[in-house]
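User: tokens in, sequence out, please.
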């Protein structure tokens, strides 16, 4: 089992999040194919935990053989195996596209081989990921970089778009998101500046659990003019 490193995290920044539901739990996952060293990287999360798997070269063809009973007894020479690896990389890339994932059968659960076994099946192709759990600190950092800060930036961008997101054209939204992503990739501070959007009640309030439609606080509904808050100080001089 290869360790998940910072270089894998950076490579995955270019990959979109995909989603499948299993037993009422939404799983988000990414897959990045590296053509230069014929490797692939996979991460999956339920937003609380993160599992990963890194496969290189012949491990990819070995996994393909394990997943396909029809190929189990076939012997490949070195040249044929190289072609098989390239073929499987192309198939993996296509399998982890949004339109393919939408149609693929998805199963997930523990196994003897790994902490989490993830299986995708589309048409006649089956693929299995044997993912291992990341430590809490590394998982938190990965979720922050790949999910939380991009969501903040995207939400901030949507706040200042004149049209509702459901009415804006896909091409316009893609251009806006790409522009936001290119700026953010140059500087992580861009994501942090987007966090200033929390100063707007419509933004911060919209991120409440259960929003929209939940009250600002359980059992409390503001009525009339908002009161002037008093910290209990008798005069401004007490602040100094």
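Assistant: Sequence out:
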């Amino acid at each position: 089992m290869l360790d998940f490193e910072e270089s894998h995290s950076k490579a995955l920044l270019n990959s979109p999040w995909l989603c499948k539901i299993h037993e009422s739990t939404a799983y988000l996952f990414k897959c990045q194919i590296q053509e230069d060293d014929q490797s692939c990287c996979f991460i999956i999360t339920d937003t609380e935990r993160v599992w990963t798997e890194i496969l290189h070269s012949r491990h990819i063809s070995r996994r393909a053989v394990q997943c396909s009973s029809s190929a189990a007894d076939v012997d490949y020479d070195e040249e044929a195996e190289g072609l098989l690896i390239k073929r499987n990389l192309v198939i993996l890339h296509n399998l982890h596209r949004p339109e393919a994932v939408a149609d693929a059968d998805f199963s997930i659960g523990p196994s003897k081989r790994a902490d989490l076994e993830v299986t995708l099946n589309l048409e006649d192709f089956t693929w299995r990921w044997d993912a291992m759990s990341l430590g809490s600190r590394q998982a938190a950092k990965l979720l922050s970089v790949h999910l939380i800060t991009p969501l903040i930036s995207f939400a901030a961008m949507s706040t200042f778009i004149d049209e509702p997101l459901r009415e804006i054209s896909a091409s316009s939204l893609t251009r806006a998101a790409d522009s936001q992503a290119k700026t953010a990739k140059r500087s992580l501070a861009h994501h942090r500046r987007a966090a200033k959007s929390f100063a707007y009640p419509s933004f911060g309030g919209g991120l409440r659990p259960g929003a929209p439609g939940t009250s600002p606080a359980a059992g409390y509904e503001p009525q009339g003019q908002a009161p002037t808050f008093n910290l209990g100080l008798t005069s401004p001089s007490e602040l100094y």
